């Protein structure tokens, strides 16, 4: 059902772009045909990208399609926003045309001489007969001729298209620079009422949604590892959506994770994208173990710091429920000392409802990308209780990181990539 809805929206978007950017900016002819087929070609590139990436094809297949997806999205958004001023301008032009069609005095036509005996003027062509010696001369009025001027409606269509095109390309260019650049280091302090005073200052480096895939190279992972190590954190928390493919495809991109440095180790929980491959998350769990990253599979560990203990738990993503590998909060959180503070790693913010039922003090999540491409942040807010940042839900605090990577288009607008340095306070 999701695929059908997505395909329908893509087709509708392309039809809308053809109507606004081709039909209303050109006259019938070769240019219109060329632009129409260009739009069809871009649609074919987009389809090839989605099919190709699912088949594990090389990155050169993905780049043009994903970039066009972002440009297409912003063209549609900007054109929709311009519909109101465009409608006002069109109404004004219609009024001007009606005024021009009103009766007004005609200028005297300029006569053109035609010798008698030649082809007669058209029936509706004004004529004047003048005697000239022995042969009469018939004069026909010839209307002034010249290049057809651009209509007001054509001018309006081209102006709207130019504004939308320049705005969309500028936005996507800015978004690519943001997505492919260094993540922002967000420094956050979280107060936990039950926190043992000896745990004050315990630091978590939180990263999510790295999305190793066809558009990322090993440099993407190396940069993230380097930035995390520079934070000198006590605990590294990788909160899901690490990969978009199999170990065979992306194993080399993940190898820099073996260089992660922290006092008490690096921990991982699955995100929904770990369940997208036929192999499931199992092979990545083993691969991460070889790289020194421990996966918390509906389980918890004790973090002992300065003579005090903190419970660090992790649950599987809700996307694993369909394959019998979903979250089990009772298993991860049951039987613990409720007098101790508990930090939970759970990929999706929506899991905070169950976390609250089990008395979790703080949940660390990702998944949302902060919307990644504005105004998608408004849509994400309809499905998740928190889009980004720190919030409280039913007495449990939840911090949602925007993620260090991107999914789909290599574009981030209004939601720069993030690595979080989170410090606990009592």
From TrEMBL:
Xref: Pfam families = Metallophos
Q: Which InterPro entries match?
A: Calcineurin-like_PHP (IPR004843), Metallo-depent_PP-like (IPR029052), Metallophosphoesterase_sf (IPR051158)
Q: Which Gene3D superfamilies match?
A: 3.60.21.10
Where are the membrane-spanning stretches? 6-22, 34-53, 65-84, 155-177
Q: Which GO terms describe its cellular component?
A: membrane
Question: What Gene Ontology terms for biological process does this UniProt record contain?
Answer: lipid A biosynthetic process
Per UniProt, which keywords does this protein have? Answer: Hydrolase, Membrane, Metal-binding, Transmembrane, Transmembrane helix
One GO molecular function term of this record is: UDP-2,3-diacylglucosamine hydrolase activity
The protein's required cofactors:
a divalent metal cation
* The Calcineurin-like phosphoesterase domain, residue ranges: 202-370
The record ties this protein, via CDD domains, to:
MPP_YkuE_C
**Family, per entry:** Belongs to the metallophosphoesterase superfamily.
This one is known as Putative MPP superfamily phosphohydrolase
Q: Which organism is it from?
A: Nonomuraea rubra
